Structure formats: structure tokens, C-alpha cells
User: Fold this.
Amino acid sequence: MVNQENSENQRNQSNQSNQDNQSNQENLLGSPQTPYDLIISGAGPAGLTAGIIGGRHKLNVLVCEKAERASPFPRGETLHNARIFSEVLGDNVLNLITTHLTAARKFNSPNAENSLEIYRRSPSIVYSWDRFIELLLSRINETSTEIRYNTEVSSTIIENNVCKGVRLKSGELIYGSSVMVAEGHNSKLGQALDFPYASINCPVVKRLISNFHGDYMGFEYFFLAPGSLEYAPRFPPGIIFVFPRGNGNCEVGLMIFTDMAQRLTSICDIPSEDELLRVWSKLIATYPRFSDLMKNTEITFEGITQIASAKVVDNPMPVPGLFFTGGAMGFVEHSGSSGIASSMQIAKFAVDHIASKKISNWNKYLVHRYVKSVRKTKFYKHILSNARKTAFGKKFLFLRLRTSENINKNWNFVKAAYKLQ
Ligand SMILES: Cc1cc2nc3c(=O)[nH]c(=O)nc-3n(C[C@H](O)[C@H](O)[C@H](O)COP(=O)(O)OP(=O)(O)OC[C@H]3O[C@@H](n4cnc5c(N)ncnc54)[C@H](O)[C@@H]3O)c2cc1C
Assistant:
């Protein structure tokens, strides 16, 4: 009898603790009853900035990163100083990771027959990607924002046409009042909404080298005219870049102008990755001046990726509660493919907006107000006007003048037009 009573008591206790567990689980952050204030997909510059700012606003924030660490592929490693860096990282913190400063630029015409040298008003800062990401992480660690690695977001949870959270690749559902897409150039969530990444992204090969002994310590560029390489007659217009990093290190690469290639389909194609690499090694071996700069250098990193710098997605919130930022919406300066500052600016703006308006239930009116307020910002207008001006210059070079010979013949005119900008 005593035993029976005991076991009845135990059953009651265990029922009670099951109920407690269940209600604890229901109240866990990320459940439908207790959603995060903000879920961020992607821990690059945009996602980490949003995590930092959300944490500073005391929001409950979760960052999901598909890789085993934040942003493992080294992307942009040069930037122009902008207020956003001190706002997010602290005053003068960039000095800690700067390896080289330069305001000088040299643009070479096809085959390096002519050049144009200019000086920017302020120097560009050269730094290491990993150290930059470490700085962002150190700021996130000062807040209560959570980061989950090896956590790939595969889709959104949509209820009554409003985004209510994310589904992970593992099948787990996580609820959040707002979701930010900071997945970069080939976002899964953007693909699900038919974002035109084939027109947004420019293929690029990036190489980091040591033992570089160039004679020019500014940034140097070489324009490639469409169809101008005899070993790749259908190769599209593009640009080779050489960014010295100090101490004999340098970043070099080749980027295709997707927007121009798409207008020249009768004479060129976007190359496959294999073709891009084949042409890249030929350029390193034979392209005038560039091949000399590459002699005796040693590769420390090489990879193929894309830069989202050919088209800006018009709507930063295509579904109520689902923000797009950074590379995922092509929010990159088209002139120099700089996207670090702009990714961080739009991410910060979005989180400040959520916090100041205390938004927990999105509706069409709130979406309209957000989209209108982003479009009014200086940084948003800058990205759009930069895209327009750059398109004008590229059309003139690659559609109007088109051939290497013509571009070289009109180089003085190109120089004058550039200086007038
Ligand atoms: C070769 C190269 C050179 C560049 N040079 C410069 C430069 O000199 N200066 C400059 O300002 N900009 C430069 N850029 C552009 C700049 O790097 C990008 O605009 C910027 O990194 C975009 O930031 P982001 O946070 O939006 O995306 P990303 O930096 O691409 O970060 C996206 C993150 O999301 C993660 N992710 C993706 N999908 C998922 C998913 N489904 N679930 C979870 N996580 C996911 C990725 O692993 C990654 O960590 C360069 C880019 C490249 C590729």
C-alpha cells in the first residue's frame, strides 16, 4: 500500500515536471509563444552588425551561420572610412587591423597601353578579413546576442502573409518577430523569392599573394574589353585588380561585368568557373604589365566567388517582417564593388528601426513606413546614384567604344570624362 501511494505520488510529481518541462519549452526563446525579437540569417558584416546593434538595444537576437565559423571566405579587404565603422566597432578601432593605406589609383587601358592616375580625397584602408570579423565578434560578445554555427537557414515560416521565423536545414523551426536576411550574394531566401542573382552577381576570382614587389603602392586596375583575348574570344568585359597590402602582400583578382555581358550576348558569354580560372592563369602569365607584377609571387589564398555588384534589388522588405540587407539584395557600390560599409549601414538602420518603433507584429502599413524610410537615407540614395553613374561609364567603355583598339584611341577622352565626374 505504502508502495502504491509512493508510486502515485511519484507519478503526480513526474506529470507535474513533464508539464513544467513542456511549458518551459513553450516559453523557450524561439518558440511560437516567445519568439526572438530578431533572427538573422548569416554572420557576415551585415548579420554581425545587426547582431551587435540588436544586442545594444537589448533585443533578444539570434544569429544563424551555416558555416562552422563566421564568414570563412575572405571577401572585401579594403574600405573607405565611414561613420558606420566607429558606430559599430568604436572610435579608431580600424587602426588596429590596418596593414596599408593608400589614396592612389591607377586605371590601365586594355593591354596597359595608357593609364590614368588619380588620388582620392581620403585613403583607402587595407586590412585582413579574419581580423575584421574577429573585431565584429568581439563587439557581439559584449551583448547577449546568441550565435549558432553550423546552422543553415533553409526557408521562412510564413503565417497570414507575414514572416514569423525560419526553418533550419535540420528541420527545426525557430520563431522571431522579425527576420533579417544577411546571407550574402546567393541567398537561399532571396532565391525563394526569385531575386535575379544571375543579373546581380559578378563572378570573381580572388587571390592573396606574398613576395609582391610592385612599383606602385596604390590600387591598380586593368580594363578588359569584350572579346579582346585571342585565347578566349567570347570572354566578357571585366577588370583585373591589384591591391597592395603592405609587407610584400597583395590582393589580386579578376571580376566579370555581368551587366555588360548580358547586353553583349552576341559576342560574349559569362564564363564557367573552369573557364574563368583558365583565363585567369593566362592573364597572370601573359597580360602586359600585370604579368610582370605577378612574377615570383606566392599564393596564400585563392578562391572563386561572386560579388553582388551588378544590380540592386528594389524592395528591401518583400514580405512583411523579412528584411533583406547587404549582398543578399545587391547592396554594393557598383563603381568599386565596395559592399562592407553599405551592408553594415542598412543592417544597422533596420535594427534601429525595429527597436525605435518597438515592432513585434508586421503589417502592410509598417512595411511601407520602413521601406519609405530606408529609401530616404543618404546611404541608400548613394548606392542607387553610384549604380547609375557606373552603368553610364561602363556602357560608354564597353558598349560604345567596345574594342581594345577604340578604347585606347579614345583614352584621352575617357580620362577627361572620368575627371569631370
Ligand atoms: C572577392 C571580393 C572582394 C571584395 N572586395 C571588397 C572591398 O575591397 N571592399 C568592400 O567594401 N567590399 C568588397 N567586397 C564586397 C563585400 O565583401 C560584400 O559586399 C560584403 O561582404 C557583404 O556582406 P554580407 O554580410 O551581406 O554578406 P557576406 O559577407 O557574403 O556574408 C554572408 C554570410 O551568410 C552566411 N550564410 C549564407 N547563407 C546562409 C544560410 N542559408 N544560413 C545561414 N548562414 C548563411 C555565409 O556563410 C556568410 O557568413 C568584395 C567581395 C568579394 C567577393
Remarks:
- The first strand starts at residue 36 and ends at 41.
- The chain is about 40% helix and 25% strand.
- The mean pLDDT is 93.
